[in-house]
Write a structure and sequence with these properties.
The chain is mostly helical. It is built from five helices and no strands.
């Protein structure tokens, strides 16, 4: 079994722990962290922006961290989505899904960071190779 499958299964099982959370605990988390439906998109946007910015700055040493970051993002996304499904199954209220969906949004934002970094890196490398070929 691959490492990715093992991480996803483990994160899914941990996500089921949200099933035991009471509605009061979930509302307290939403209030404490000031979660809202709007804030779910913030990690996605920051992932894209920071991935491009880090590449433009020229931190090529981050290249070796792309695979572990992808594993972490897959685990966080699975944890959040499994937790959201468990919360909905236990409480039948969409408003209580925010803590679990925020974890999932952070995982997707991390993936978008890796994706935008890799895309900008590939474009930069292709442009450099094209310039070398013309010379």
């Amino acid at each position: 079994m691959s490492l990715t499958k093992r991480l996803v299964i483990l994160a899914g099982l941990v996500g089921l722990m949200f099933y035991n959370a009471t509605a009061e605990q979930l509302w307290a988390t939403i209030v404490d962290y000031q979660l809202s439906w709007y804030k779910l998109g913030v990690p996605l946007a920051w992932g894209l922006i920071l991935g491009a910015l880090v590449n433009l700055i020229g931190l090529s040493s981050l290249q070796k961290w792309l695979e572990p970051l992808t594993f972490i993002s897959a685990s966080l996304t699975t944890l959040g989505l499994t937790g959201a499904a468990a919360i909905y199954a236990a409480h039948q209220q969409a408003g209580l899904l925010l803590p679990a969906l925020m974890i999932s949004a952070i995982g997707i934002g991390l993936y978008l960071f890796v994706y935008s970094f890799a895309r900008f890196s590939a474009h930069k490398q292709a442009t450099a190779e094209r310039k070398d070929g013309e010379s």
